[in-house]
Structure formats: structure tokens, C-alpha cells
Write a structure and sequence with these properties.
With 144 residues, this protein is an alpha/beta fold. The chain has a 5-stranded mixed sheet. α2 crosses α3.
Length: 144
């Protein structure tokens, strides 16, 4: 019987469920967290290059274009999730993949997943379901 994995994620947490098919029970098999994504933007930047105060109005920072620290952490977490899923696909742990993620994370995840894993995606939902119960997730997936 085909195994389907369902990934529900936001920028700080990804829950991985497995099911044997439509209407079947969801079994949570893993819970990945990224606590840095929960921090306040100012706490994330502490100690980064270019965070010091400039003394002259003409001084330029050598740190390059600024990307909010939270965006960098979201991208890093998406990369971690993608590696996890690529490895699981390589080991034959799932046949199909459903991804439900906050819109910004979903885009980053698409960018970082390997082509063979992206081919296994049968459905994408640009919605944050990371804090929903398995029953609520199942109902949303089944259209209820």
C-alpha cells in the first residue's frame, strides 16, 4: 500500500505525518523545530556583521544587502526540511507527499527540495496548519 507523508509547517515548526490513504488516520512520525524563528528580529541580529553603529554619514557597511534575520532563519529551516524530505524519499519512506505550509515557507521549501522529491508532491496548501490537531488536518485535507 502506498505511503503518503503530510508535512505541515510554519517558520518554526514542521510536523511530519504518515497515512495509508484518503480518509485514513494520520500518524505523526516526526516534529522538527527551529526555535530561532520564534525570536524577535532584534534578538536574531545581535552579533551579526554590520550591526554596529556607523560613525560617519558617508560610511558604508561591508555586509552587503540587508536581509531581515527572520527571513534568513526561515530559509535555513526550509533548507533543513528539504534535506530531511530528500533523504526520506531517497530511503523510500514515502511514495507521495502533501505539503501544507505558511506561504513564505512554502516558497522557500519549493526552492530547496530536490527535483525527485518535488515530483512526489501530489498537493500543496499555502496555509499554516502546524498548530492544528491531526483530526483537523485530516478534515481540511479531505475537504471538510
Amino acid at each position: 500500500m502506498a505511503s503518503t507523508w503530510i508535512v505541515v509547517a510554519d517558520s518554526a515548526r514542521a510536523r511530519i505525518f504518515e497515512t495509508a490513504g484518503h480518509g485514513r488516520e494520520l500518524n505523526e512520525i516526526d516534529d522538527l523545530s527551529h526555535p530561532e524563528s520564534r525570536l524577535h528580529e532584534g534578538d536574531l541580529r545581535t552579533g551579526e556583521a554590520g550591526s554596529r553603529q556607523q560613525r560617519t554619514p558617508t560610511a558604508r557597511s561591508a555586509s552587503g544587502p540587508t536581509t531581515p534575520a527572520h527571513d534568513k532563519h526561515t530559509e535555513g529551516f526550509a533548507r533543513d526540511i528539504a534535506r530531511y524530505l530528500d533523504d526520506a524519499r531517497h530511503r523510500g519512506r514515502f511514495d507521495e507527499l502533501i505539503v501544507a505550509a505558511a506561504p513564505a515557507l512554502l516558497g522557500e521549501l519549493r526552492d530547496h527540495l530536490g527535483a525527485a522529491t518535488r515530483e512526489r508532491i501530489v498537493r500543496e496548501i499555502d496555509k499554516n496548519l502546524a498548530r492544528h490537531s491531526p483530526d483537523d488536518i485530516r478534515k481540511l485535507l479531505d475537504g471538510g
